[in-house]
UniProtKB/TrEMBL annotation:
Function: ATP-dependent carboxylate-amine ligase which exhibits weak glutamate--cysteine ligase activity.
Stated family: Belongs to the glutamate--cysteine ligase type 2 family. YbdK subfamily.
InterPro entries assigned: GCL_type2/YbdK_subfam, GCS2, Gln_synth/guanido_kin_cat_dom, YbdK
Name of this protein: Putative glutamate--cysteine ligase 2
Organism: Nocardia aurea
Superkingdom: Bacteria
EC number: 6.3.2.2
Amino acid sequence: MASTVSIDPRDPLHGNVVRPFTVGVEEEFVLVDPATGLPSLTNAAVAACACGVELQLELSRCQVETCTPVCANIPEVHRELRRARLSAVAAAARSGSRPLAVGVPIWGPPGGSMTDTPRYQRMAERFGSLAEQVICGCHVHVCVPDRDLAVQVSNHLRPWLPALLALTANSPIAEGADTGYASWRHLLWARWPSAGPPPYFRSAAHYDDIVAKLVEDGRILDSAMVYWDVRLSAHLPTIEIRISDVPATVGETTLLASLVRALVVTSVAAVESGRPAPVIDQDRLRSACRNAARDGLSGPQFHTATRHPVPGSGSIAELFAHIRSALEESGDDEFTHDALATVLTRGNGAVRQRNALYSGGPSNVFDVVSRLTTEGCEITEDRRMT
């Protein structure tokens, strides 16, 4: 996020976190040639053409990232996401390219596509070809300024990571073919030495000790390279949830933000009431996330209580039931319920990409994801968020 927290997140009398929590969202996009759909190495030019929104340069020259300002509620998140996507589309058009909301490019970028900044070049020197990958995620920040509380919230979020990944999977196609995974991005991302589900933390000091060990061992350059699916922001008073592919539509990203924010609120309430987070084995959780990446919503998913598989829709229903009180408190329950029903009925990005591939080939995938990237962005009435 490019902004700072704009409201006091703490109750001055009791020190407890005040609801609703502020939230911000980052979305990463692949830049492509509008005629061919091939990756376009134009991120610097696109960022220079942006008006009304700051576009961040990503690891590859065919990627940009949008960041919302800090938002007080989910309707505001939706407005800002629409504005950011439309601004990115306009900036890209001025530079002869188009942004796509896909977890990986439909066709791979040419070699040597890394953005030429000192940090990224340093990463290339340390990690070699691993740094050449192009993957686009969505990161949701929720304000939790107390770091000891934030790591306990992280513990409570861990069981829900497979469900969030299954819901937002949007990268089944790479090099014009079906990879066999709903989220191929997750498989590519997992190769980084600091990626995957976070450990179970005893305290903020424990978190810092693990990060220091990663730096000491040379597995990361610094704390900014902690790529866990949930992490404490290195420069903001937030907890950052980053398990998801960039969703196909702005409505699905808004849904993700609503789910994540309610999960954080529910987790804070659990910590403050003394309810411990379930201790789930790291390897088992990693395996559950891998299964979610493979199957998306079509296969069995990890059940947080029994630790046994349940149908994909069952894990989503369990998630909604878990956070329903928080959603009702914020007034987001109706939107979230309806948006979930839409995704479960219509399919997420992975489902729609595959449908497009098998009905018309890779060029049809390009046409479909181009349309989905801006779907709903033209809506101006705040009453509708999908």
